[in-house]
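My current task is to audit a protein record that another person submitted. Alongside the sequence sits a line of tokens, each denoting a local backbone shape. Please read both lines and tell me whether the tokens look consistent with the sequence. Do not assume that whoever made the record got everything right. Thanks in advance; the entry in question is below.
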Amino acid sequence: MKIVTKEFSVKTRSRFDSIDVTDLVAEAVQGIKDGVAHVIVKHTTCAVIINEAESGLMKDYLNWAKKLVPPEGEFEHNLIDNNGHAHIISAIIGNSRIVPITEGKLDLGTWQRVILLEFDGPRTRTLLVKSMGE
């Protein structure tokens, strides 16, 4: 079994942002023919999803996250740094996804993309891709 580990940074543009990182993840799995890639964002106020990257949906993910956990809500954590909502949303959605690799490529469905969701930007975010396989 071979293991390939790569990290890359993504700069988010606003407090709430959605960025398609599929191409960066695809570059990070080079060297693995068949296996899996673990995609992890190394922060507690953003998340990773696999879904369609259509522009309307990219906004919908964020708008619904705000409805699910409104930023103006009451959070004990806000006494420290005013981003309690971002921690809660991130915990609900999750900071990682597993993507299959087949014949050296991400094995995603026709419309599936790997998307970083930002809830406390703008910031520079670090993503780790740890790929395992043959």
Notes: DSSP finds four helices and eight strands in the chain.
